[in-house]
Design goal:
Elements (H helix, E strand, L loop, with lengths): L4 H17 L5 H16 L3 E6 L1 H16 L3 E4 L13 E5 L6 H12 L3 E6 L5 H4 L3 E4 L12 H7 L10 H21 L4 H7 L7
Helix pairs in contact: 1-7, 2-7, 3-7
Length: about 200
């Protein structure tokens, strides 16, 4: 039986990284994020979530949880997504902060006077430049831009075992799930209310 050494090492690396980020993430930024979402909920505003690739999948999960809490939440690119207006909230997720589609969406939302929240590893990124609030989530490294493995070794640059942006996306997923838990408490939502909004038509 294989010892799955790399599986175990990566599992521990990802888990430890996420645990350690709690000491790095700015709680005031998270608090402002939660308050913006609560204001949107209480003022019947829409929440649009934007992301590409794996970050987009994280965003979809977040939008679904917001819907369970009673938010008017949408994902950019869906056919039923409405237009964005003043004081709606746009949550834009990009580890690098340079993803073309996400940056363009943030720029357009800003022109519509929506509140833009950037979830990114880089506070100096183009995405952050359009944001009303930046929630900095560590995980995305710039080492991956150097493709030559041996060049990285010579320079002493080591990628984590978790591939590409995995650490950012995993951390963002946990952070956003924790935000949902805080919203559930602050808005006094019960499991029964969430269950009521859960999908009840499933393909066998």
């Amino acid at each position: 039986m294989e010892d799955l050494r790399y599986f175990r090492s990566a599992y521990l690396e990802i888990g430890n990284f996420i645990m350690n980020t709690l000491n790095v993430i700015n709680i005031e930024e998270v608090s402002s994020f939660v308050n913006l979402l609560i204001n949107a909920y209480r003022n019947d505003k829409k929440v649009l979530v934007v992301g590409a690739g794996r970050s987009g999948l994280v965003g979809r999960a977040f939008a679904m949880r917001l819907m369970h809490l009673g938010f008017k939440s949408y994902v950019l690119g869906e056919t039923i997504t409405p237009s964005v207006g003043e004081d709606d909230v746009v949550v834009a997720i990009s580890g690098s902060g340079t993803t073309t589609m996400v940056v363009a969406a943030a720029e357009a939302a800003k022109k519509m006077r929506a509140k833009v929240i950037a979830i990114t590893s880089y506070r100096d990124s183009p995405l952050a430049g359009y944001a009303d609030l930046v929630v900095q989530v560590p995980g995305r490294t710039k080492v991956a831009k150097m493709d030559d493995y041996f060049a990285r070794q010579i320079l002493g640059l080591h990628e984590p075992l978790a591939p590409l942006g995995t650490l950012f996306e995993d951390t963002a997923m946990v952070l956003l799930d924790a935000v949902i838990a805080e919203l559930m408490y602050r808005l006094k939502k019960t499991e029964d209310e969430i269950r009521f909004r859960h999908a009840n038509i499933e393909v066998p």
